[in-house]
Amino acid sequence: MSHKNQTLGEFIIENQTEFQYSTGELSKLINAIRLAAKVVNHEVNKAGLVDILGTAGDTNIQGENQQKLDVLANEKFIQTLKNREIVCGIASEEEDDYITINSLDENHQNKYVVLIDPLDGSSNIDVNVSVGTIFSIYRRITPVGTPVTLEDFLQPGKNQVAAGYIIYGTSTMLVYTTGHGVNGFTLNPAIGTFYLSHPNMQFPETGKIYSVNEGNYIHFPQGVKDYIKYCQKEEGDRPYTSRYIGSLVSDFHRNMIKGGIYMYPKSSKAQKGKLRLLYECNPMAFLAEQANGKASDGYQRIMEIQPTELHERVPFFCGSKKMVEKAEEFMKS
Ligand code: AHG
Ligand code: MN
Ligand code: MN
């Protein structure tokens, strides 16, 4: 079938045999995410119309102001993933602790945990700039029949069975991987169907875009400062172009299509950087590697890191392989 007309539903069925576990499980999982994506998309799209802009008046465990839409997206995702006989636990940026799901599953038979950043790029909500949702999926490591534990969530990124994001942009897209490349689907809002629009997405080997919050420049480690100066230098194919949206999902999506590097380094203000390992960096790292890109904390592969906390932060360098390797060179010297 030409990919032009292929729906996400058809794609899931056609490719379910490549899943290393039972075929029906992959379909259930991605279908649950697909549904949640549509529900959240519906809310995000009408943000300016109903009273869901602005802050919710609360802070999350990380001390960040929660936007109303952060809270709403969180609720919708959790509601939708519950009761689908596939997910046994959810961890979210907006929840202090992980959630055990056992409503339909009193015997704890479900096998997958989902970690989410329900609304990524919160600061862009009120100004109508693209935001996203990020998800990461693991198989539980504790035995079925017992309640899920923290250990099931604290797995290194290399154990992920699927990961992806939804970008609520000029069009809404669902981009995901199950370890067999990265595919992007665009939502036709008129009929509520995702179509395969970006098969086999790949980062160009190198690129000309660097994305970093340069307002933090003076606080960056010397290696990062030197790499930024390298990007700006008039030499060969440089200077590169600076593009920073402030939604990781959007910056990543653009860089994957055009070629580029995204950086959120540590700084003297934030010793471990800002981004969260479990529901921001790991899923993006899995996608990056599946799309011929690379993700690093400046020294080592993101997906090798053994997490110790649910909301742990990590410095993040991600994008076109050659560019991330160059940044690592600067970090070492
Ligand atoms: P979130 O909205 O989920 O808290 O994530 C925001 C993240 C990321 O998406 C973005 O790239 C980065 O924070 C922006 O941070 P700065 O404003 O510090 O540059
Ligand atoms: Mn985020
Ligand atoms: Mn968020």
Question: Please, could you describe this protein's structure?
Answer:
With 333 residues, the chain is an alpha+beta fold. It folds into 2 domains: 8-198, Fructose-1,6-Bisphosphatase, subunit A, domain 1 (Fructose-1,6-Bisphosphatase, Chain A, domain 1); 209-332, D-Maltodextrin-Binding Protein, domain 2 (3-Layer(aba) Sandwich), CATH 3.40.190. Helices cover 29% and strands 24% of the residues. The protein contains 8 helices and 15 strands. The protein has helices at residues 8-14, 23-45, 68-81, 150-153, 222-232, 248-258, 277-290, 321-332, and strands at residues 55-59, 65-67, 87-92, 99-100, 112-120, 131-139, 162-168, 172-177, 182-188, 193-198, 209-211, 241-242, 260-264, 293-296, 316-320. It has an 8-stranded mixed sheet with strand order 4-3-5-6-7-8-9-10, sandwiched between helices. A hairpin with a 4-residue loop joins strand 8 (172-177) and strand 9 (182-188). Helix 1 (8-14) runs antiparallel to helix 2 and helix 2 (23-45) runs antiparallel to helix 3 (68-81). The radius of gyration is 19 Å and the shape is globular. The mean pLDDT is 93. The protein binds 2,5-anhydro-1,6-di-O-phosphono-D-glucitol and manganese (II) ion (2 copies). One manganese (II) ion is lined by residues 70, 93, 117, 119-120, 122.
